[in-house]
Amino acid sequence: MSLAIESMCVWHGSRAAVREVTVQASAGSIVAVIGRNGSGKSSLVRAVAGVHGGRRSGTVSWCGRDIARLHAVDRARCVAYVAQRPVVAADFTARQVIELAGAVIPRSAVHVDLAIDALGVHELVDRPFAALSGGEQQRVVLARAFAQHELGGLLVLDEPFSAMDLAEQHRVAGALQCLAGAGSLVLIVLHDLALADALAHEVWWMDGGQLRSSGSRETVLREEALAEGFGVAFERVDGSLRPIVAPRCDPLTG
Fold first, then answer.
1. Is 131 helix (H, G, I), strand (E, B) or coil?
2. How far is CA 180 from CA 152, 161, 174, in A?
3. What is the pLDDT of residues 114-147, one digit of tens each?
4. Sequence-ordered list of residues with C-beta below 8 angstroms from that of 48, at least 6 positions apart, any chain
5. Which of 76, 84, 197, 207 is deepest in the core (most CB within 10 A)?
6. 243 secondary structure, DSSP code
7. Would you say 18 and 44 are in contact if contact means Cβ atoms under 8 Å apart?
């Protein structure tokens, strides 16, 4: 297994946000992290990426190396991370934000241009980042992560689709599938369970800071289990490649 998480605990002050999570994943796949709000999804992936600033215990290993113990340069070479709400304090253009991929490790104009092409943000690069819409900003910071990312590495994304329209989601989903197909591991927090079912190979289900279930999407995203965990009825609907799970409009009763 390329990614191995052992007995991971994460605290925010005195509150335990993640409790004793042990799980593994292989490169060449997309893993969706799902769960209700406050279930520990973001805390878990921040700890995986090595960017959680608070107290934590347990280990996260990538290809046998403890991510927390890596030098910043080595960590940047194997792990790229995109936060749920990207913040750029300086008055940068979109291209300058993407070029931040080279802040820790050398990245040429070729890396930047390939990332711009992969995310389809050519028309945005000369505009001020602050003037972009939420979805446009998200695509730009994803392009920054793509420029940093090396194939075969780990890409950690926290709700990257939340502000995107359908066309943007489709473009980004395709780019992520290409990365996984080239041997990378994409770890992605998602609220949209239909998107998780359509995109992911495996699913980690967080509940109350613990791992409720993990495994193939077919194993985890069962209608009965989701109905029990989310309090909403689910059904299978036709997708472009296969039936995918989606919530029904009628809530559960009783």
1. helix
2. 8, 17, 10
3. 999 999 999 999 999 999 999 999 999 999 999 9
4. 3, 5, 60, 67, 154, 156, 187
5. 197
6. -
7. yes
- Least Cα distance to 115 among 132, 98, 103 occurs for 98
Q: Which of 22-31, 62-71, 174-183, 204-213 has the lowest mean pLDDT?
A: 62-71
- pLDDT band at 45, cuts 50/70/90? very high
Contact 115, 98 (CB under 8 A): yes
Cα 213 to Cα 35, 87, 217: the distances in Å are 10, 32, 10
pLDDT at 92 over 90: yes
59 DSSP β-pair partners? 6
Q: Round to whole Å and give the CA distance between 246 and 238.
A: 10
Whether pTM exceeds 0.90: yes
pLDDT band, residue 199 (cuts 50/70/90): very high
- Residue 144 Cα distances to 32, 48, 141, 178, 227, angstroms: 21, 19, 5, 17, 37
Q: What residues contact residue 105 under an 8 Å CB cut-off, 6+ apart?
A: 73, 76, 77, 148
Measured in residues, the chain has a length of 254
Q: How far is CA 29 from the centre of its chain?
A: 12
Domain assignments of the chain as residue spans, ordered by start: 3-221, 222-254
